[in-house]
Structure formats: C-alpha cells, structure tokens
Amino acid sequence: MKGKRVGLNGDTAVAFAAKQANVDVVSAYPITPQTIIVETLAKYINNGELDAAFIPVESEHSALSAAVGASLAGARVFTATASQGLALMYEILWIAAGMRTTIVMALGNRAFSPNINIHCSHDDAYAARDTGWIQFFAENVQEAYDLTLQAFKVSEDHRVLFPSIINLDGFILTHSLEGLYVLDDKTVEEFLPPKKPYNPIDPEAPKTYGPLDLYDWYMEHKKLQDYHFNNNVPPVIKEVFEEYAEISGRRYTPVKTMGVEDADIGIMILGSSAGSVRHVVRQLREKGKKVGVISLTQYRPFPKKELVEAVKNLQVLAVMDRSISFGSPGAQLYMDVASTLYNAKHRPLLFNVIYGLGGRDLTPVHIEGVVEKAEEVLKKGEVEEEQIWVGLKE
Amino acid sequence: MLYEVRWHGRGGQGVVTSSELLALSALKEGLYVYHAPEFGPERRGAPVRAYTRISDEPIEQHYGIYTPDAVIVIDPTLQSEVDYVMQGLKEGGLIVLNAKTPNSEIVERAKKLGAEIWVVDAYKIAMDIFGRPFYNTPMLGAFTKVWGRIKLDNVLESIREKFGERGEEIVKLNIEAVKKAYEEVKKYEY
Amino acid sequence: MSIEWKSWKELPIGKIIPEPATTLKFKTGSWRALRPVLNEDKCIRCLLCWIHCPEPAIIRLEDDLVKIDYDYCKGCGICANVCPVHAIEMKMEGE
Known about the structure:
The structure holds three protein chains of three kinds. Chain A is an alpha/beta fold. Chain A has twelve helices and 15 strands. Chain A has helices at 10-20, 35-47, 60-72, 83-98, 123-127, 141-156, 185-191, 218-248, 273-286, 304-310, 332-341, 364-380; strands spanning 4-9, 25-28, 53-56, 77-81, 104-109, 134-137, 164-169, 177-182, 255-258, 265-268, 291-296, 298-300, 316-321, 349-354, 387-389. In chain A, strands 3-2-4-5-7-6-12 form a seven-stranded mixed beta sheet, with helices on both faces. A six-stranded mixed beta sheet of chain A has the order 9-11-10-13-14-15, sandwiched between helices. In chain A, helix 4 (83-98) links the parallel strand 4 (77-81) and strand 5 (104-109). The longest helix of chain A has 31 residues, at 218-248. By secondary structure, chain B is of the alpha/beta class. Chain B has one domain (2-188): Pyruvate-ferredoxin oxidoreductase, PFOR, domain III (Pyruvate-ferredoxin Oxidoreductase, domain 3). Chain B is 41% helix and 22% strand. Chain B has seven helices and seven strands, in the order E-H-E-E-E-H-E-H-E-H-H-H-H-E. In chain B, strands 2-3-1-4-5-6-7 form a seven-stranded mixed beta sheet, sandwiched between helices. Helix content of chain C is 11%, strand content 17%. Chain C is built from two helices and four strands; from the N terminus they run E-H-E-E-H-E. Chain C has helices at 48-52, 78-82; strands at 34-38, 58-60, 66-68, 88-92. Chain C has a two-stranded antiparallel sheet with strand order 1-4. The chains are: A alpha/beta, B alpha/beta, C alpha+beta. Chains in contact: A-B, A-C. At the A-B interface, strand 1, strand 8 and helix 9 of A face helix 1 and strand 2 of B.
C-alpha cells in the first residue's frame, strides 16, 4: 500500500479526495448523512486550502443545476447528496448525464421517506440507475477515497464524458472511522491533471445547448448516449483502475469475487455489507462450506460479462438488495442479475433477499440464515420462495 | 486478535470522541480499526453509545458490536441501567465505570461472567480539570491503563492531533485528564 | 456550418447544436395566413409595432420608419392591433 495511513470517516475521506482532486466548483446543499462532506469542503475553501468556488444554494435541484452549468463551462465540479436530496435532483440527473457533464457526486446512501429515516438503504442509488450516471459502490472508507479520485479521471476522459456517483453507505461508512492510506498531493496531481474541457461553453464560439428535440432527432440522441455509455465507459474504467493500481498499490475491478471458483452457493451484495458477508463466509468456508461472495464496485454501466463469468460455477445465487421495488419482479439488483443471466449459457438458481432497510443491521446470524436458505434451494434443486426478508420482525 | 469495545454515555459528554480517539490511538500502533457512533434522535442527556472494533487483521465486517470484550460507562448515572450496559458482555470481559464504587447488581453480573470491574472517579477529575462534566478523555485514559494494549504516548499524541486546532490550553487540559485517570483507575476486588 | 446529419453516429456529443442561432434557417414566413401591410403615409413612427412584434419581424429603419420582414413574420396581427393610427392592415395572403 502506498501513501500515508490516516484515520478518517467516510465523509471526511471523500471531502479530502475532492480537495486533492483540486475541484474548481463545489455546488451542494447539506443533507444527512452527507453533511460532513460539504462542511469539510466549505472549511477547506474558507481556510484557503482549496481554491474553489463554493456555491451555496437553496435546494438540491439548484445544487445540481449550478453544477451542470459549471461543468459545461469547463470546471471540475463536485457535489454530494443523499436520499430526498437526490430525489429533488432527479430531473437534473438526466440533464447532467445527457448533456455530458463530468460532475462527480458522493451519495451518502440513505432511505427514502416515509417514514423519515436518516439511515442506510440503497433506494437513492437505485433511483439514479436509469439516468445515465456512472455509479460506483464503496465497501469501506478506503474505497470511498480511492473511488472519488478515480471517478474524476473516468468522467473527464473524452471517450467518456459522463458524470459519476460514488455510493457510500450512510452512517456505516459516512460517519464511521477507519484507517486508510491517502496519496500525497503530488501523486494525485500527476494522476489527475487539470480538467481538459470538451467543447465547453465559450462566448467566442457559441453553440446551442438543450434545444427542442422532437421525434425527428430525439431518438438518435438517446442512441448515441446509450452507445457511448455502454461501449466507451467500461474500458476506460478498467484503464483508470489499472493506472490507479500502479500509483496506489490498490487494484480495483468492476466485479469483486471471493471463493466463487469452487463454490456451489454465491451471495451477491453491494456496499459496506459486502465485507460483513465475506467475513462470515470466510468462517463458513473454514468449516468446509462451499460459499462464494460477489460484489460490484462498478454498478452502472452494469458489468454483465464479468458477472456471467463470476457465476459460471455456482448452482445457487442469493442476490441481496437493501431496497424494495414495489410490484416489480424483484428488487433492483435482483432484476439486473436475473436479466443479465437469462441468456447466459450457465445460470444458477436465483433468489432475492431483502435486508437492512433504513439502517437495520445485517448481522452474522442473518448472513448465516441466507446461506442456509441457499443450501435448501441447492438440495431441492428449485426456488420455492423467490424473495425472502432477513432481520424482519415476523 | 479482535477486540470490541462499547462505550456508554449521554449526549454531550463526548462518548463518540472517546471511541474515535481510541481508534486513532490504535491506528498509531499499526492496528486496524472501525469506530462507529450510534445515531438516533440525538439530544443532550439522552443515552448514547459508540463502538470501537480493533484488530491486528484487516476489519471487513461492518455490523454492530453485540458481544463486546469491554464496556466503558462514561456517565456515572448510567451504571444503574444494568441490563443496558451489561448487554452481551463476553465472559472474562472488562467493565470500566465512572464511579467511586460499582452498583451491586453490576458486581453480581460481573462475578457470573468472571469479568473485571475497574472504577475511576472521572466526575471529580473532570470537575477539577475542566470545571464541567467532560468524561471522554478521562475515561479514555482509564481504559488505556486497564486494557494495556495501547501505549499512553499514542493516546496523548491522538489528543494533540484531535484538539490541536482548538488551542494549546484545551490540549493541555485533556492530556492532564487522561494522565490523571490513567493513574487513578483501580480494579474493584469482589 | 450546415447541419446535414443522416445517422445517430454523426451527432455531436451532448445533444448540442454546434452553432448558434439556427432558427434563422427556419423561414417561418411560410406559416402566414394573414399578411400585415404597412401604409407608410399613415405611420407616425411611434415604434409600438416594433416593440410588440414577438418574432421580431418588424425591422427598424433609419428615421424610425419600419419595414416588415416577410421571411419570418407569422402573420399574428399584433402589429396591426397595437398601431394607434391603423397604419397596418392585415390582408389575406395571395390577395
């Protein structure tokens, strides 16, 4: 591991990364559990440690709108939000992606109301899944820091030009302190030189932004966006991960696996709970249980090929969602996985596990329960209950 | 080695800071740490908990601490909430109380668990040094002595870093509080 | 620059139109059913028509005389309506 070892909570680590990325504009509205990020950046700017414009706004809708303008004008822009804040940004999420801004946003994952809750669900991350933002999931504070730096590099690449979200679980990561390695400023500066704007707003070369676009060209515009998102983003993410591995000693992959090569049962999960599952599964493997774990660092674009590869030896896969999608065939990650595997040569039996809503802790007992359920499915050779809830007061 | 600590206090007494400082001090020993404050409807005076997980191996698990190796009760009145503070304590665990003497029911429970009880009058230390009931740094000093795995120097260094930007005087008082509790904490023989 | 895209593959990134003021290319005069006709002798050069025209298709000339730009005038009739001396008359196209 390269860099200096420090102790920071997730929010502070993200703010520190944004400072090291030398952002030009911070446009944000504070909301728990992301508030520390905005406060820390405001402090850096006020102290003169970071030369950036801080745009205080009256709502998240304005925060992202200002960010869109700044990004198109050529600035390196950072923002952060959570839950209801993201919901208020929703209209602008599509605009930020469709107009090909390079905004980087930290999302302190928090449950949607009602009832009001400040703790972790992945509702907000999933709500942004269709909007054309690149999405990364951090599993710990180190990853929240590393992914923030890497997100700028990915988003600003001229083959990409899409905004990025870094998901970090509310409180579990935002407010919890862990040890992490931080790079020195010079290394970051070399990795992330000033943004080279692509075709920025320029009074000397006026262009028309966001014009009316009806049935004559709207569809072609969406096709181009979709084509670039699916085809250009994944290879650039891999390149950036590779370059970052060289400077940091920490190698990221779109899909993270443990033990899937020899396992019959797999558990798939996103965010801070992935480490919890790995910890419990490691102990189960010592007892001879053939269980593997899959998590995603890259959630959008969805890494289909890598997932098909990761499950090729599994017989049963439990897909765990920290969210629900009312009336859908399953929760959001489950639907992604099921549709990815439908046409795959090998597909394990699938079931969906709902866990951790509104900050409900995912304990070792719950994780062992999921494994037991998967063992039943394996034995029977069929899925009787497609969705189960764990940690629920029955 | 995996060691899990649960801190009990009341909002405003600095229970989160205690846990954070313990984690930062352990980090200086080259150990792996996870410090998690418990967030509910925070109000000054309401019972608050914080958790510190320390290990010589990377810590991947992010779930709560249910079977702590040590409970530290930084508020003198909270030891009467026996079920609350003793919940899940491991056999042979440590109980560190801000008290002149432990509550008799805690002593009974400790006997059954073979747990050690340590007491320190952090109320007096805090009032003498700060003139206000700030129990976080004295109780950290007490636990540093009781656990014995973290060097006092590393704790003092963490305090300098944490309080440095609030001025020399604050640093000095907190260091004094840590040292005093470190010296005064006593094992309660039952 | 003239925009002659044939496929989505040729579109510029970000859904922009890479030049400004492309509406100049749309001669909206062809939409007109009624045609404003100015009687210069009656005109008192108050410029109310010039102020009110939403297109704007009233061109202000030297000495504050006005001319109607039939390339863009959609024939809405606001100019005739606001003229205090009835110097503009709306006539059927083709008459």
